[in-house]
Amino acid sequence: MKKLVHAAAMMAGLLFVAAVPAHAVSPLSLDGNDYKVVMFCADDAGDYCSNGDVKNDTFKFEDDKFMIDSFDGGILGVGGSGGFDENGLSFDASYEVIPEELIDKYTFEVKGFNIIDTVLVGSMKIKYYKWNIISYDKEDEATAYYFAIKQ
To answer: Residues 116, 57, 73, 45: is their CA dihedral positive or negative?
Structure first.
């Protein structure tokens, strides 16, 4: 009986493999896409990220530029500057912004993976700087882990 069940399972597996068409896997192109992001902050970084917080935001990838929606506007409505680079299923992105108050500055180093054409997962380093008479001094550095879904 055991051999019969094993043989039936093998036949079902072979039929399934033969019946399901195979397609070449191509990596997701991030360009032109926005992703709703849920992130968990493991440390503090200014007002953007506090230890233990779960934060919602949006990542925007457009024409080799990377933006974080919370800072859309930045100094005088111009926003921050950032870019991204895709390497197969993984990507790296960076973003720097000085919010309108001009006292704070944030830099983001984002690393992640594209999964099933609609999901990103990864981590990011967030550095927070504060204005000190002639330049910005680093105050905090945080790591955040995120999960993102394509809009």
So the answer is: negative
